[in-house]
Amino acid sequence: MPSFASPVVDSATVVQDTVRWLERAVIDLNLCPFAKGVHTKGQVHYVVSAATDADLDTLAQDVARELQALAESPPEQRDTTLLMAPGCLHDFLDFNDFLAIAEDLLVSLELDGILQIASFHPQFQFAGTAPDDVTNCTNRTPYPTLHLLREDSIDRAVAVFPEAETIFERNIEVLEGLGLDGWNALDVGARCPVAHTSATEK
What we know:
4-stranded mixed sheet
């Protein structure tokens, strides 16, 4: 029988998909009022990890390297980092387990209180929701993604938008009004063949 090689991760496609999600979902739906500024200024750094489920040490090394690089970079050049892992952690529970490793790295590098790690996933699911609940889409990305943020940037954003706690409530209303069909129509899914398809994508 013929053997088939595993699809090769196309880093350019992964970045393009993530930028499309950022523009069409996060910015156009205003899910995060702070995203447009850093995007238009070119201050978002995109990194595609080559890690696989058999080699999660590579992803841990990528996280450590990018945390240090972000901390050492001038904010006006690199305000935030999106680290995509298209070749691994397709199961949301496995992804959640890895988050503990990422947080431990943040502490071991003595960057807690300076940087934060936020998480996004194609199968993201809030506790108490069904897998096809459209509100889960607030945290759904084309690929498993770790968002590395600066604490100072968060503080400045909150100062400009003091009612930041209302963002989540508004996002829920927006997505419920959009519905799954509306979300799918945004066409913000993964095009890289190694990535698993989100439950909300057709």
